[in-house]
Every structure is written in structure tokens, then in C-alpha cells.
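Folding problem:
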Amino acid sequence: MKPIIGISVNSLRDISQNDVGQIGVEGQDWQLIAADYIRAIERNGGVPILIPNIKSLEDMRIVLDKIDGLLLSGGHDVNPRIYNERNSGKAGKFDNLRDHEEIFMTQYALEKDIPFLGICRGLQILNITLGGTIYQDLPSAGFPAHSMSNSLRNEPSHSIKIIKDSPLYEIFERDEIWTNSYHHQGINELGKDLKKAALSEEGLVEAVYLDDKKFALAVQWHPEMMYDDKGMNKIFEKFIETCK
């Protein structure tokens, strides 16, 4: 039987009918996700379902008990109040409901040892859930820009060094790969028990994992967008295989 993979979604409020193809009416809230995530799960033998942002954590438990794996997707910046920092004004828009819900989802998945894959924001949520912090804006913290919006989504932007003995090294069997890059935040202080799996050229954490779980890996780049890269596909292949 194919494993069921739950995928978290974005909430969008400042959006027009033109943005959503003239469906619905003006002023509605929308919950949506890029199809790249869905296709990556389908392509590797999983059944994707979208987990909406709902207010009841009890209802969320019911949803999480039905899935075989959890994928936390990218999206809005995390509100710095969550990790006890003052808002620097350098972050983007926040979604407080999604922040609290995804932290709960992450805690629950780790507690129940549900296989977990975090992508971009998903890496940051995992780190914050485990007590870590993030840079609110990488250039302001002295790092080169990592948000390469002028490149194609499947186009590599920079190289990363993979740490040996990490799950990422087992997947790629290489100590260096090139990735795309669409983020302006990143890990500052590492969360409890998290281990580094990859670093950028300047030392920014690009991937983390927990070694006491079936599968708990998070990456800062977007492997789902790199649909024509066999190595990136192996991340989903390994994740879904563990979910079976």
C-alpha cells in the first residue's frame, strides 16, 4: 500500500481574483501549495494530501494520526516572537496560525516518530521547535544573498558541502553538490539534538537531521523544484521508502 504523505500549506490573505485565475471572490483567504511538492511525492510512490491550517490542535491530531509521513513546505517567514527575538523589520510577512500549527505538527511527528521532511521554512520550523533560532535576514547578518529569484527554479545557484556520516551523504554519496536557493533566512543557533548535514560555502547550515528517528531530515533549498535532478529526487525516494 502506498504511504500517505501530509503536506503543510500556505495561507494567503492579500491576494486578488486575478492572482487565483478569476475564481472565488475578492477578499477571500486562500490556502494553497506549489504543485512541485505534490508531484515529487507522486513521482516517488506516495499519496500526497494537503493539511490545511486549522485552529483546533485536537482536530490536527486526528489528521496526523492518519498519515505515514509529514512534509513541511516552504512559505512565509516565522514570527521572531516564537523564538524570543525582537522583530528586526528585516523579515517578511508572518502567519501566526501556521507558525503555531506547524510547531505542533513537528512536535507531534517527532513524538510519534512519524517520518519528517522539512523544506526551506520547514527546516527553520524544525530548528525553532527544538529551541534553536534563525537569522531574520541573512545579508543583514553578514551572509551573501541566498534568495536567487532571478534564476530558474530548477537551476543550481551555489554549492554545499555534505557532512559524512549524515543521512544526506548516504543519499547523495558525495561530499559536495549544487542546489537552488530561494531563502533569505537561515539557522543561527542549532536546536537541541539537531546535527548538521550540510553547509554552504560560507558556513551557513543548509541541512540538519535527528539520528534517533526513523527519518527526520530538513534542507534549506528546494529539492522539489529541481525535478530534473536525479540526486534531488533521491531525497523523496528515501523519505517515502521510510514511510512505507
User: Anything to note?
Assistant: The chain has a mean pLDDT of 92. Residues 77 and 94 are 6 Å apart (CA to CA).
